[in-house]
Specification:
Elements: H1 3-9, H2 19-23, H3 25-34, H4 43-57, H5 65-71, H6 76-84, H7 90-105, E1 111-120, E2 130-134, E3 139-153, E4 156-165, H8 176-181, H9 193-207, E5 214-217, H10 219-222, H11 225-233, E6 237-242, E7 247-249, E8 255-256, E9 271-272, E10 280-281, H12 282-287, E11 295-302, E12 305-320, E13 323-335, E14 342-347, H13 355-362, H14 367-378, H15 389-412, H16 422-430, H17 440-468
Parallel strand pairs: 1-5, 5-6
Antiparallel strand pairs: 1-3, 2-3, 3-4, 6-14, 7-10, 7-12, 8-9, 11-12, 12-13, 13-14
């Protein structure tokens, strides 16, 4: 197709923003931040929170507390104390944050997405660190892993909440000193990732209005029948990815309680009446679906064009401990470019739900991955060096605010610039964010700071090394 015709059918997006809108961005950020003022107990906490938020949104490439403080002309120790040790609570901030997300993105059929993200760490002293699977590198690594809730609707997406995952070994006696050093509460106990996600969801629902019908997650959550049943008990529809080995029936088998033979214990467990009515693995079931039963549908519009897949929708009965469980939708999604790539999902959505709605939710699971990428590239999601439980959650809380602010601006500018990206909004914002003048005097101050810090580190390392050497060594 000639380029001229393509341009007529798909005209380039307009960007009708003017300098007036951009110069007001700093005022918009201040108005947004002041909505959280009442969540802090002290004025200095409000001030330090503002500095940290500005640092996350700044043009700095690596947004650790020290660099943000130096960039913004702040006292390094003071900002480090605010983020890593100051006892301000995240819950009051979370409550306001959730209200604003509902205001910005809320829709009746909104989707809560659960997922985890890992950050590779050096050393063994950061809270929750351990050898575990880390999605950012696609393999096991020494890392920290957080479990997150994201809210998505047709208006956009942002992170609602998150909590650090702690491996079970962190709660044994060998880690008692590390827990204490990292400020881990004595009340905290081991929870699996699905258990953490479920608790985060319950907390979010308790905070107030949170319009949503769906909860979506990958295999880690979809494979957990306990997690899915808990979602159903909350009155929500789950859409969980499952392993290809999960077994189902297409027709509900009859069960019965065997008659007592008169010897031994009376039977109490139901049995299949027809043991020949075998359940089938979902991947084997997919092979039996005739070609005419597949539906080709657009999942969503991607940055490189529409994402189109083949779908099959089946009503099935889950296998639970060898017996029939609840009725569910089995959704099978096949990649049209690579038919060998097939994903499987279970959902408790009503039997009469529109198949288009199931296709839509299939495309609503990606936003949390996009959010993680945006957070890591643009606003310092994984750019932190504090070791404490408090510090990790303080940092993440302010990252959530930074992300949502940029999402709000994208919606605010939607009519003037419908194709504005997350990166472009932050780029425009950095042109008006106030920063101290960087002159010779400021440069010298920073150099002197690093020299003092490096000397203190050198003296400390030297002292430790000498303590390990024999006393008769001449220096």
């Amino acid at each position: 197709m000639p380029k001229e015709i393509v341009a007529e059918i798909y005209p380039p997006p307009e960007c009708n923003l003017t300098e007036k809108e951009i110069t007001q961005l700093n005022q918009e950020l201040e108005k947004y931040y002041l909505l959280f003022e009442r969540a802090f107990q002290r004025k200095e906490q409000v001030a330090k929170g503002r500095v940290y938020l500005h640092g996350l949104l700044s043009k700095l490439a690596y947004k650790v507390t020290e660099r943000m403080a130096l960039h913004l002309g702040e006292n390094v120790r003071s900002l480090q104390h605010f983020i890593g040790q100051s006892p301000w609570q995240t819950e009051p901030v979370l409550k306001i944050h959730q209200q604003l997300i509902v205001e910005t993105l809320g829709e009746e059929d909104g989707v809560i997405i659960v997922d985890e993200s890992g950050m590779v760490k050096r050393g063994e002293h950061s809270v929750g660190v351990g050898w575990q699977y880390c999605g950012s590198v696609g393999k096991k690594a020494n890392s920290q892993v957080g479990v997150y809730l994201s809210y998505a609707s047709d208006k956009g997406y942002s992170i609602l909440d998150g909590q650090l995952f702690m491996q079970e070994k962190w709660f044994d006696e060998d880690h008692a000193k590390k827990r204490q050093a990292c400020g881990v509460s004595e009340d905290l106990s081991f929870q699996t990732k699905p258990e953490i996600a479920l608790q985060l969801l319950k907390n979010a629902l308790k905070r107030g209005e949170l319009p949503c019908k769906w909860v979506a997650g990958d295999e880690l959550y979809g494979d957990s029948s306990i997690f899915r049943d808990s979602i159903a008990k909350l009155g929500k529809w789950y859409y969980g990815e499952i392993r290809s080995t999960i077994q189902v029936w297409q027709k509900r088998p009859e069960v019965h309680l065997p008659e007592w033979s008169g010897r031994g214990r009376r039977p109490t467990r139901l049995r299949l009446r027809d043991r020949g009515q075998k359940a089938m693995r979902v991947d084997e079931l997919a092979k039996q679906i005739p070609q005419y039963s597949w539906t080709r549908a657009k999942v969503k519009e991607g940055s490189k064009g529409p994402i189109i897949c083949d779908f099959a929708f089946l009503r099935v009965i889950e296998v639970r401990d060898g017996l029939p469980g609840p009725d569910a939708w089995l959704i099978i999604r096949r990649n049209i470019d690579n038919p060998e790539e097939i994903k499987y999902f279970l959902s408790n959505a009503p039997a009469d739900i529109s198949l288009c709605a199931l296709v839509r939710i299939s495309g609503m699971r990606w936003p949390i991955e996009i959010t993680f990428r945006e957070g890591k590239v643009e606003i310092g999601f994984d750019h932190y060096e504090m070791r404490s439980w408090l510090g990790w959650h303080h940092h993440m809380m302010l990252v959530f605010l930074a992300h949502h602010f940029l999402v709000r601006i994208r919606i605010l500018f939607n009519e003037l610039a419908p194709a504005l990206t997350f990166y472009q909004i932050r780029f425009l914002l950095t042109s008006v964010l106030p920063i101290p003048v960087f002159d010779v005097s400021a440069a010298l101050q920073i150099v002197r700071y690093y020299q003092r810090r490096n000397h203190i580190a050198y003296v400390s390392h030297r002292k430790s090394k000498l303590a390990r050497l024999p006393v008769n060594i001449a220096l």
